[in-house]
């Protein structure tokens, strides 16, 4: 992971992520996703399974990762469609 996407200590919080979003610091979805997953992992490492928000946090993490996967698929589909379009033009 690049040092530009996390703090020096390898930790990041939602406020830092929000600031990076507001100031267009992310170069792409993968960098944003990496920071979010780092935040999730830090939270899970610091809180036990009996924490009152543990299950909720796991559900948020799961929903985020499913959303990112759908976005990746849509990007891939768009790229594939563009390739087909350009291959038809080349004929």
Features:
91 residues; mainly alpha; Histone Acetyltransferase, Chain A; 70% helix; disordered N terminus
CATH top level is Mainly Alpha
Rg over C-alpha atoms, rounded to the nearest angstrom: 17 Å
| Main sheet overview | none
Task: Write out the CATH superfamily name.
Answer: Bromodomain-like
Termini distance? Answer: 42 Å
Please provide the ordered H/E string of secondary-structure elements. HHH
Number of strands: 0
| CATH fold node name | Histone Acetyltransferase, Chain A
Q: Estimate the helix proportion, in percent.
A: over 70%
Can you give a write-up of this model?
By secondary structure, this protein is an all-alpha fold. It has one domain (10-90): Bromodomain-like (Histone Acetyltransferase, Chain A), CATH 1.20.920. The protein is 70% helix and 0% strand. It contains three helices and no strands. It has helices spanning 14-22, 29-46, 54-90. Helix 2 (29-46) packs antiparallel against helix 3 (54-90). The chain is elongated and about 60 Å long.
Summary, kept brief:
The protein is mainly α. It is built from three helices and no strands.
Topology diagram in text:
Blueprint: H1 14-22, H2 29-46, H3 54-90
Helix pairs in contact: 2-3
């Amino acid at each position: 992971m690049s040092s530009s996407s996390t703090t020096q200590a390898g930790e990041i919080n939602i406020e830092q992520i929000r600031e990076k979003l507001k100031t267009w610091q992310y170069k792409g979805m993968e960098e944003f996703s990496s920071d979010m997953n780092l935040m999730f992992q830090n939270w899970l490492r610091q809180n036990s399974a009996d924490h009152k928000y543990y299950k909720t946090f796991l559900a948020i993490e799961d929903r985020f990762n499913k959303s990112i996967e759908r976005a990746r698929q849509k990007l891939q589909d768009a790229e594939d469609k563009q390739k087909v379009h350009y291959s038809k033009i080349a004929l």
